[in-house]
Every structure is written in structure tokens, then in C-alpha cells.
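Bench notes, bay 3.
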Amino acid sequence: MLRQLLARWGKKAPDAANNDQNKQAKAGSDPAAGRPAAPAVAPRAPTVDTPPPWRLVFRRPMLDRRGAIAGWDLRLSPWAAERLRRTNAQRALQEALDFAFVQAAQAVMQSPRMAVLNLPPATLRHGAALAQLPRGAIVVLDDAALGALGTEAPVVLSMLRDRDLKLALAPALALVEPPPEFIVLDAATGARDGPNGPAPTAIAGQGRIVTNLRSFEDVAAALHEGADYACGAYAQAAAQRTGQASVQAVAIANILSALTAGRPPREIAELFKADVTLSYRLMRILGSAAYGLGRSIGSLQEAVMMLGTRELYRWLAVLLLTSAGGVPLARALHETALVRGRLLELIAIARGRTDPPEALFVTGAFSLLDLLLNVPLESALALMPLLPTQTIDALIAESGPWRPYLDLALALEAGDDSRQQAACAKLELNRDKAAALYAEAGDWAAGATELGEV
């Protein structure tokens, strides 16, 4: 029945569509006519009593076939979904949600990335909210959303089309007219390509989005099998890595260890000479406009001295993340590692305690070293025996004084409200401040990745 309704929506004649719009304008929100509630007023900014946007909308990275973060999957946070089930809080919360989704979508679409929206049914029925969504954003209507809309689905789809929003529909509706730009496959229900089931029939040019994948391996497989975009737990491995560190990774680790041990610039320069590629990259970075030296660098030893121990250590730590070639999803993993590193560094600065920001940057960045180097994390860290004990404890034993920093980063990535609260309490950090620092770290990592600065 639902498919027939949607097919009828696609084949509606222009005059009929105009008549329907005129009727809607006269009748307002008429349930008997099958029209959704669509207030004429735009979503209002939340009052001081409503939750902040970061608590309402949860975003997950959407990866493309290059293994890079191409956009953000925006959806209800678990906290907001639970609150919506409380009837006494629905109206005020829904207004705040509409505003939060519009703001989040606009912010994403103003960047080089795309917004993929999983809107709650009430927002989908809110014509004024849909009218403010940025053109070109992708709106997902999976089986659950279409079921919740019921007979209102054709009208909602018409509103989305009128706004020039792209559609990602459930597989059963891939061939409705006009066809959606994407079909969306939910791995959590087994609806995806490959070993778990056959691929739905799709028309030429129709894209495929796979969501709710459970691991690094699943995300990599979905993209390899033909998905245009995939979303899931790409930073969690289902199995331990079994490879060996590359020659360049070992060379970088040796220099990092020498820096940690306080070796003089002459000895550091000798280690660079053992790897021509590293030597070239060091000279190139100092010759870039970012450093603006205005003169040539005569030797590797001079380059080491000009860059300085702290900056050299940081640059090498980031370079280590990209030292293994051919790793699936490397671009997304690299950016996520940078987000973690920068976040931990910013938290240390904000707390103003004795925890060293530079060491915490390395702790966060190295948390994905196993996936980036395709080796067990213990083996990767063993290449640098002089890393701080707190770093080893946080990454391997999942304990120690620096572990709450990483716990907060992981909780923010997962949208886990209770874990965020627990980590913030241990760090004596305000929740709003933590959310702001996370956004700042994300912007920094995205900018650095796009510009190739790290």
C-alpha cells in the first residue's frame, strides 16, 4: 500500500499538484485530507531552558569509496530519542530539535562536505523546518520513517522534492517515480550487499548508502562491494591486526624515540639521513610558505634545529599515522586520530593542570595506530619504548590518569551521554566546554587534512 502511495505521488500531474497545494494553503493542517502538520512559522531558537544543540543531534562520519570522510550522518542523539518518548516534554523538545537539525545541516553544507539527515517524523511533517534545510542535503527515509509517516509520506516526499533535497529511500522503493538519488541499506537489519543478502535492483546512476555497520572490516567491505557511502564503527576492529610495521614507520619511530631520549640535533639528523623520503619531507616542510624563513636551509642538522624539538616531535607523530600505504579507510582513520589528538591536547590546556598537552596529543593520535599501521597496538607502541607510562596505560591497559581524556573522546564519538558525563566528572570539565572543544578539534583536523598540512 505504501509503495502504491509513493508511486502515485511520483506520477501526480502538475495541475493536480498545484490544486493540492492550494487546498493545503486554505485548509492548513487537515488530518482528514491526509496532510501533515506543517506550521507556517520557522523553527525557533531554543530558550535557555531547552537542551543545547550538541545534546540533541548526533553526527556520525559518512565515508566514501576513497576511505575519506565525505559528510556527516545527522540523527537524533540517544538522549533526545529517549526524551521524545516522554509525552510531557515533546512539544518544547521538538521545537528545539527542528532548530538543531536545521542549524547542523546548514553548517555542514557550508563546508566541503555533505549532510545526510535522518529526521524524526515530527520534523519531516514540519514544512517550515524543511523549507530551511539547505538545498542538496540528503534526507533518509528508511522503513521506520516511512512507516511512521504512513499515508502522509507522499506529501512529505513532495515537500522534500520542492526544496531540492536529495532522497535516500528504503530498497523496496528504489524504483518509484521520480526515482530517489540513493537507496539506503541498513546493515543492522541485514539489508546490505554481499554475503548478507543480494543487492536490490537499482537504476543507472542511483547511489547506494549503507548504514549501521559494526566494524572497520564491515565498512571497508561495504565500500569495496560498491557502496557509494558507508557509515558505521570504522574505528573499531573486529579482529586484531596481524601485519608488520613498514620500513618508514620503523624509521619514524626511531627518530621519535631519539627525540624523547633528548638526543642532540646532530644525532637526529643522522637518523633522518637513513631515510631519503623523510629527509626530503623535512626539508620541504621548512621550505613551505607556512614557515616563511625567506632563506634556504643548508643541512638536515640545521633543519632539525630550526623546527625545534616540540614541533618536530608533533610533526613526526602525525607523519607516523600515514606511514603505511594501502590501508583501507586510511583517510578517515587519519582524520579521526587527529581529532582525538587535538581534543586531548585542548582539554589539557583548558584544565590548566600539569598534564602535558603535547604528550596528550600523541596519546589521542596513537589510539588508532593499530588500524593505521595494520599491526597490533602493542607492537606499534613497542617501536617507541620511551613513550610516557601514562600513554601506554591509557592505550593498552585502559587505565591510569590519562585514560579519562581518551574515554571522553570515545564517548563524544559514540554520542554516549552517560559516558560523557562520567568522563567530564573525572576531568572536572564542563559538558558545554567539552562539546565546544570537540567541535574545535574536528574543525582543526578537517582543515589540516584538506590542506595537507599534516
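Next record in the batch:
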Amino acid sequence: MPAVPRFSIATRIRSQRSCPGRRSTRLERALIRFCLSPLSRMKMLLKMLVVIGVLVGIGTVGYKPARTYWEERHRVKWETAAIVRGDVTRYVNSTGSVRPVQSVLVGSVVSGPIEELNVDFNDEVKKGDVLATIDPRLFKADVARDEATLATRKAELERIEAELVQANNSYQRGQKLYTKKVGFLSDSEMDALVLEVKSLEAQLKVAHAMIQQAEASLENSQANLNYCEITAPVDGVIIDRKIDPGQTLAASFQTPELFIVAPDLRDKVHVFASVDEADIGLVQKAQAETRPVTFTVDAHPDELFSGEIEQIRVSSVANQNVVTYPVVIVTSNPDLKLLPGMTASISFEVDSISDVPKLPNAALRFFPDDVQWVHESDRHLIDGSMWSTKRDRENEERQLSAAEKAEKRRVRNKRHVWVVDGKWLRAVEIETGLSESGFTELKSGALSVGDLLVTGEEVKK
């Protein structure tokens, strides 16, 4: 842009000042002096240079602190947790259901309408208590009929016995006459006397058999009459009732179930747990060491129940390629808080160790997201240079022998955790031991109690 002559600027300003009613501003007066005086212009330039020099000096002196402050303000901050000393207990968790130790099904042998129903759900009964009564009229009639039949058979026996006595007397008198005088009784008459005695003896045997048959029939009818009273076979609690008053039972082809009685429900109950095949070995070890089992139920979420392993059954259950084994836990139930069918959340104590350094599990789960945060010597742990692809690892696993796989599982406890080293993150190799919900045992590594481990990035507020 071409320079404007000084006289033209001054002339323009003078012309503006000559305008009536207009005042000159401070800027205009300064500009007039600058344009009209070279010395003033030099002074002005010198002042500007001094100001610029001062500003440059201040910027030079404050740059490093400002940069340090800026980096500190925007540097990533890490959440940390300390290594502590304490006990570590390992658990195997599972779910199960509460069941009575024994469930006794009470049925009916005879058919007929229910006449009386004496118990209801949750009633406690004693052995021999009458639970229900079936209409006994038909069975009483059967008993009366069989009693009459038995009386008839006995009377028939008495008649045959009397006739047999008479026949024996006739035979003896005939025998005397036959031997005393020849021809007094013919041979046919003597044979008739003998045959009559033998016939009555046979009838006597038949009469005894008929009496036995009548007695058996009467006993059967009496038993059916007794079966009209449904009694409790054991002491226990009625946990299920499957009949109502007036209901008709038909026991012709299958015994109908009327009640389910749970004996000793207050003494103890069973909790059936399904344990994964990967954990059943640990549970077997816990049973051998008599370790306790704890569980909770939804009905009493604040109460912890305890028990012990009573049985590990060898009959496996496969469901969608998942194999589990039933484990039976026994526990007391004095207050009847544990009811059949309740769902239990079970924890098996399988191992424990006391007074060891332990680190938070969050430190084991942490892994840096950005390689720029990591010290250069540890960047190979996260940049993938020491990793193989998933497919390569799977192929290697298939080619390993059983012994090699077992050895690989034994050394899988070697891990890395991260500590803050200045502005970098540094990896520390460790070996872990037992693990619980919040902590894991530190078996070896260049760490000690009180050291801080990185658990995550601190959230900026």
C-alpha cells in the first residue's frame, strides 16, 4: 500500500478541524504531532520496542512454569489401591434348592368318597394320627357278610363232625356184628358203613378248608375297613395335601396320593446344589477337610445359614453340554425358616490362607488403553509384539499334550500389575495365589505391603 504524505494527512485533519461544531479527539491530536514531528515519531517507536521487549521477556521467563502447569493440569491421573496383609479364603459358588430329608407319600388302598379330612397344610402330625376317613359303609357290609359266612362254615363243620361221630358208631357196631356171626351183615352193607365214614372224614377236611377261606375273606374285608382310616406313617409335617372333602378316590389301577409328610423337618433339611464339573474336585477336597458351607435364601436375605457337605453324588446331569454334579448339604432347621422348595445361594469354602500380602483384584483387571502412558521398556506388553493371534493360540492349545496343558495351567498365575513411575506406568511381574471376591494372594514379585497399584483412570470432575 503506497505511503500517504504527511502534509496530506495534516491537511485532511486541519480541514476536519475547520468544520464548525466538531472537536478533535486525543487520537487525532497525537496523530498530528506524530505526523508533524520526526522526533516524536522516534520516541513513539522506541516506546513500542521497549514494551514489546518487556512482553517477550515476561513470556520467556514464564513459558516453562506455564508449560509445566499446563502439562500437570492435563496429565492423566490414576486411581490406586494399596497392597495389604490379611487372610484369603477361596469359595466355589453355586445355587440349589431346599428339600426335606425324606418325603413320605401317603396314599389310599381302597376306593370311596372322602368322609372326613382332619389335617391341612403345615400341620404337625404324630405316627398313627388319623389324617382322613373314607366312607366305610360298603366295607362294613363286607365284614358283616364275611362274618356270617364264617359262622355258616363253622356250623357246617359241627354238622359234619356230628355225622362223622354217628357214622363211626354205626361202623363199630356193624364191625362187631360182622365178626360175631357170619351172614348177619352182608359185605355190601359193611362196605357202605366204611364208605360213609371215609366220606364224612373228607367232608370234615373240606369244612376246615372252607372255614380257613372264610376267615381269610373276613380278614381281607376287615383290613379294607381299617384302610378307610388314612393314618400318618411317621412323625412329621404335612407339606402337601392333594385331596378335598367329598372327593372320591379310585384306587383300582394306581394308588392315589393323598398327602406328603416330611419327617424331622425341624431337626434337619437338605440343600441340593448343582456344582460344575470344573469345581467338583475342589468341593471333594473341601468335604475331605470338613470345611463349612454357607448359604442364603431370598426369604431371609440378611441371615446366613451354615451346613456341611453330606454327600457328593456320582450321577452327573448334562444340560446343554454343561455337566454338573449334585451335592447334598445338611443343615439344622429349628425355626422352620427353611421351607421345601426355597432357592439357596451357596458358597463352598474350598481353601484358605492366613496373614499373607494380598492385592486388590481391580489391579489385576487394569490394563492401559494407550501405549503413550506406558514406559518404553514395558510397551511390548500392550503393543501386541509379544502376543499371538487368537487363532494361533487355539492351534497351539490343540497341539499340546495333556502334560503340557497341565503345566501351562500351573504357571498361568504369573501376571502383571501396573505402578505409577513419575509420569509413566511401569509393569511389575508377579505370581498370584488364592483368590477371593475382592483380593488375591501375592505369592511373589518385587512388591511389598503398602505399595500402590493402579486400578483405573481417575475420573475428571
